[in-house]
Design a protein that fits this description.
The protein is an alpha+beta fold. It is built from two helices and two strands.
Length: 78
């Protein structure tokens, strides 16, 4: 188990093996996601934009006319 000590200012030094595993370095950001009371997940939030490739499946192109028709239908449904 890897540990770190909190300073009086609330800061910690992330151990090198953890930084390596998270692929983070100086200037990168981390997110702390609350799972339950007293448990958090630490996630690197500084990722290269190429990591997003493929996250949304391809869809067909939509024409302006189709967009306008969808807006008209939605406006009429309100």
């Amino acid at each position: 188990m890897t540990t770190a000590t909190i300073t009086s200012k609330g800061q910690i030094t992330i151990p090198a093996p953890v930084r390596t595993d998270l692929h983070v370095g100086p200037g990168d950001r981390l997110e702390f996601i609350k799972l339950t009371d007293g448990r958090y997940e630490v996630v690197a939030s500084s990722q290269d934009i190429s990591c997003l490739k493929g996250i949304i499946s391809s869809t067909r192109a939509v024409s302006i006319e189709e967009m306008e028709e969808a807006i008209r239908k939605k406006a009429g449904a309100s």
